[in-house]
Amino acid sequence: MFCDCGGLLFVIGIEEPPAHLSKTEKLLYKRVCDVQCHKCGKVLYSQPYDEGTTINSFRPTKKI
Q: Residue 3 falls within a domain, yes or no?
């Protein structure tokens, strides 16, 4: 993914699947991530992480 400034967006946090889900449900769960531009520092929250889905509503992520 690219930022508006042309820089690359790096993943800085990935959502953890809810603990109550089964192992199979966790594999199907569409997570979101937070990304940051390496060039300008802009942070975009709750971006799709799994399989190119549309942008999801805000959900907390775990820093990596």
A: no
pLDDT tens, residue by residue, 17-57: 999 999 888 888 889 999 999 999 999 999 988 765 555 56
pTM: 0.71
Provide the number of structural domains found in the chain: 1
Alpha-carbon span 38 to 18, nearest angstrom: 30
- Measure CA of the first residue to CA of the last residue in the chain; give whole Å: 18
35 located within any domain: yes
The answer to whether 34 and 61 are in contact (CB under 8 A) is: yes
